Automatic annotation (TrEMBL), chains A, B:
The lineage of its organism: Bacteria, Bacillati, Actinomycetota, Actinomycetes, Micrococcales. It catalyses: tRNA(Pro) + L-proline + ATP = L-prolyl-tRNA(Pro) + AMP + diphosphate. It comes from Microbacterium enclense. Homodimer. GO terms for cellular component: cytosol. Consists of three domains: the N-terminal catalytic domain, the editing domain and the C-terminal anticodon-binding domain. One of its GO terms (biological process) is prolyl-tRNA aminoacylation. Catalyzes the attachment of proline to tRNA(Pro) in a two-step reaction: proline is first activated by ATP to form Pro-AMP and then transferred to the acceptor end of tRNA(Pro). As ProRS can inadvertently accommodate and process non-cognate amino acids such as alanine and cysteine, to avoid such errors it has two additional distinct editing activities against alanine. One activity is designated as 'pretransfer' editing and involves the tRNA(Pro)-independent hydrolysis of activated Ala-AMP. Keywords: Aminoacyl-tRNA synthetase, ATP-binding, Cytoplasm, Ligase, Nucleotide-binding, Protein biosynthesis. The keyword Ligase applies. This is Proline--tRNA ligase. One of its GO terms (molecular function) is aminoacyl-tRNA deacylase activity. Signal peptide: none annotated. NCBIfam families: PRK09194.1 (NF006625), proS_fam_II (TIGR00409).
Length: 598, 598
């Protein structure tokens, strides 16, 4: 049945919504695809639902091709399973929690690892039952701190989440690969270029994780890749540590006056003015050519305040080369599940041994940082700060620094952390050469969870020898509504949306113009022909609307193929309009139908 | 692609779930359609999802035929719109409420009148935009006090809810009729016999409401119908009040001793032993033939405690003929949105003027009940207690009653309420004769909301004269998951489920039996043929499972047409098994395929 605009539930808007921060949000609201009901919470109008259904169909078909079966869990779930795995706490404020009338705790599920694990535990008992991959397409909830960017980061969103269950590690590898392959097919069918990057498993736990990123300069994620094939998001990038240097024979640490040098830049300037030129190789990153002090010779000490799950607050310090900064996302991952913020003035006031602007791991009276130190504050090091590297850093005395402070001799860390910024040219950890940085949008995420959830919830099966073995799992997610927004974000111009044909809400947008009844009759008849040929047709039959408004709406709504029936109708001439290229071509009705149904 | 049981995600259970109170719950869990996650909250397994999808397809097609457009609202919604209409409070404990991380109030929506109203207000402005009917198929939440009966009354459930918008009352009538007609088509296609009964609009507000009930002795709802075409659920039944009788000339009220007569039965016995026989017509229901006192001559006074929305508690008394009881559902509707319970001992202790077992509206010192009375307790009357009827009732003195107490002379009520039980033989209010009682299950509900929501939320459009007019609305609901459970409840035997073909999870269940490889090869080939012919086939290809187990599973799962490929395979013979009738017929493969694809 041809959908006629004269009675279809669609109203386009002339004005951008005032709260729209990104193009997809702005255009999807203006073109009548979605409406906002609350921050990060949207209603779907008929056009939006149709696009979402097309994406879901692609996902379902490829899940079936991967041998996965569809199920559907509730959004409202009891606390207990999430308590057992620790996620009830770990999710922090991002979890919507509520109580029922009897005071029992419930949550709105952000993902369903626990419930899938329990389902399989309920029904399966033998390795012969495995492998199994099951999935759902379902509405999920996360109470984002700053819901923004429309559907790109909502608080209610539709996700395809799949979970695999295997008796062996090799089985998990195969199940993981099957989902990974399905994701490649899905994104190819949706016309979404992708890069598969190593990712941090984060709150999901588990051993291996990869993200599918769509590379685009407007992406919110940064990833790195080498010409040799390495790719990772910055959270998962691992630093290549230099070899340790000999400590024996290195000069003693020397404290020097460094008035008004609380920043790396002022410290470097002061050093070049007052210290001898650096000896070759004295600090980690220095090279034979070093003739002046640089930020890379300094050790920057960043004080962070962690808030642990149990609510306790702990200061830690990270020491890293002064030419690097801490990367917020890498910090978040490094210290998860604790929440991290910069230390406050109050923190410094409570810890007078930390002299702001002049902090270092050592002072003439001994170690200042580290669990065994005067402050008992844990001290983590960037992997580049290997034993034998010598540094200029704070002396924990106001207006004084120290040089020739040697790692492994004058100070030791409590461990290494990956928190420094990653830079173009940094070596890839797999030896495949220097990396370059790029931006992308996350479009899918696959995890090897391993046995974490199965162990916590007791999912075991009898193995070939009749012994109980814990099952190993994977989880695989695609944000369906997010994908829709990303496609919209990538396919538009200043006039409106331009859908790829595979997900367009209709196949053809027929526009009748003018006051000639014959044009409307021809448009109706052509629409019927196209529908009979299996196309889904939106026909703009509005009788008293100007061609300009109709064309504007067609451009805004963004169906890629538009057929205009107007002045030439009497002669059987119509216009084919390609929304993406803007090209219009006058052809006969028969040719138009042939072209559209080809 | 043929679904093969050897790797399909399905495990049938031998044991009934311990918490299953009804057949549909028991069988849907045992046959692998659903799993319980929490009270009234279920996960859907592949078979269940397939049945649900078929029901949704029927609903979507008939909504499209009725000109309704599909949208989709979030389940998680902000408090404000529900506050404006009063439903945030009115829903009481049945509403799941929660707060986000910023402390803003949210709810999990039980229905979406408010949001649909606001959507149309946002987008529409003229009577020319109307009529409009939009709907969604969406997961809803109600925190039932006693979630029970599996999917029949869950706390999370899937509903089709449609809303119509019209500029005029005549328009609403037409939109209402279009949905009503669509419901008739839907239930017919789903094979669900139905009766349309007048219903109370209840918490929805509005002017007119009808329920679709499936008549069945196991139904939870009682309805009445007359041979002349009247049908209503008991909540909506209205009593035909008799004409008032003349008061003048009736004898004076007389107090009499009635020791140990706190119940109607003991009072009637006492009256027959100690009072003169009743005069014709002295009490409402007495007839000329009355020669003995009956319960119908007595006025029963029931004390109820209302809890109002603001938390205040109020006692009220209802006077009704002693041969009737108060009907809990009618009481609930009569006093909504207050909650009603029976008065407690504490209530009586606080109101010594109410002498338990001997309560009446009058005592020798004057009125005891009614707002103008000694107790100030409001007094409601059954519609049969018209002026001029005379009654035996309590005298508010222990061990004493009064007779010849005349309504309109000795006592007056504060109004009439419809709370009495309805009995077979009661006259239908439309004059179509006496009613009979029957039981049914609610399968759909249609409401004329009128202007309640549009007024509360300010939905107005310009009318033909350019003046702002408030829009009038309807709302129309079908519980999709409830319908599924009802179909299961009505279609089963002691072996398992028996789906109607229109909603069966598969079209054919092919079972290969024996150890003969040829049987499995033939079964696979027949399955492929049937799929190629457009059928959805479940093929039980499990190699080491006995025929008995396979047949038992087939009966439990309940696909209506089963094809057995076993012993006769070598001769090209197979068995067609009709799950409903139990008939098995040996036919050739070609005949079987022809019969199944016919």
């Amino acid at each position: 049945m041809v959908t006629r605009l004269s009675n279809f539930f669609l109203r386009t808007l002339r004005e951008d919504p005032s709260d729209a921060e990104v193009t997809s949000h702005r255009l999807l609201v203006r073109a009548g695809y979605i409406r906002r009901n609350a921050p990060g919470i949207f209603a779907w109008l008929p056009l939006g639902l149709k696009v979402e259904a097309k994406i879901e169909t692609v996902v379902r078909e490829e899940m079936a091709n991967a041998g996965a079966f569809e199920v559907h869990f509730p959004a409202l779930l009891p606390r207990e399973p999430y308590e057992v795995t620790g996620r009830w706490e770990e999710y922090g404020d991002a979890l919507f929690r509520l109580q029922d009338r009897k005071g029992a705790d419930y949550l709105l599920a952000p993902t369903h690892e626990e419930m899938f694990t329990l389902l399989v535990k309920d029904l399966y008992s033998s390795y012969k039952d495995l492998p199994l991959t099951i999935y759902q397409i379902q509405d999920k909830y996360r109470d984002e701190a700053r819901p923004r960017a429309g559907l790109l980061r909502g608080r209610e969103f539709t996700m395809k989440d799949a979970y695999s269950f295997d008796a062996t590690d090799a089985g998990l590898d195969a199940s993981y690969q099957a989902q990974r392959d399905a994701y490649e097919r899905i994104f190819t069918r949706l016309g979404l270029e992708y890069v598969i990057v190593a990712a941090d498993a984060g709150a999901m736990g588990g051993s291996k994780s990869e993200e599918f990123l769509h590379p685009t300069p407007i992406g919110e994620d940064t990833f790195v890749r080498s010409a040799g094939g390495y790719a990772a998001n910055v959270e998962a990038f691992t630093t290549v540590a230099p070899d340790a240097l000999p400590i024996a024979g290195q000069p003693e640490a020397v404290i020097f006056d460094s008035p008004n040098t609380p920043t790396i830049a002022t410290l470097v300037d002061h050093s070049n003015a007052h210290l001898d030129a650096p000896a070759p190789g004295i600090a980690g990153p220095a090279t034979d050519e070093a003739t002046a002090w640089t930020a890379a010779h300094t050790l920057k000490n960043v004080v962070l305040a962690l808030t642990h799950l149990d609510g306790t607050r702990e200061l830690v310090v990270v020491g890293l080369p002064g030419d690097r900064d801490v990367d917020d996302k890498r910090v978040e991952v490094a210290f998860a599940p604790a929440e991290v913020e910069a230390a406050t003035e109050a923190d410094f006031a409570e810890n007078p041994l930390l002299v702001k602007g002049y902090i270092g791991p050592w002072s003439p009276t001994g170690a200042v940082l580290g669990e065994e130190s005067a402050t008992k504050i844990r001290y983590y090091l960037d992997p580049r700060v290997v034993d034998g590297t010598a540094w200029i850093t704070g002396a924990n005395i106001d207006q004084k620094h120290v040089h020739s402070l040697v790692a492994g001799r004058d100070f030791v860390g409590d461990g290494f952390v990956e928190v420094s910024t990653v830079r173009a040219g940094d070596p890839a950890p797999d030896g495949s050469g220097p990396v370059e940085l790029a931006r992308g949008m996350e479009i899918g995420h696959v995890f090897q969870l391993g046995r974490k959830y199965a162990e916590a919830l007791g999912l075991k099966v009898l193995d070939e020898n009749g012994k109980l073995a814990t099952v190993t799992m994977g989880s695989y997610g695609i944000g369906v509504t997010r994908i829709l927004a990303i496609i919209a974000e990538l396919n538009n111009d200043d006039k409106g949306l331009i859908w790829p044909a595979s997900v367009a809400p209709f196949d053809v947008h027929v526009v009748a113009t003018g006051r000639d009844q014959a044009a409307f009759e021809l448009a109706a008849s052509v629409s019927d022909q196209l529908e009979a040929a299996g196309l889904d047709v939106l026909y703009d039959d509005r009788p008293k609307v100007s061609p300009g408004v109709k064309f504007g709406d067609a451009e805004l709504v963004g169906i890629p193929r538009i057929l205009i029936v107007g002045r030439g109708a009497a002669e059987g001439q119509v216009e084919l309009w390609d929304r993406r290229t803007g090209e219009r071509e006058t052809v006969t009705v028969a040719d138009a139908v042939a072209a559209l149904t080809r």
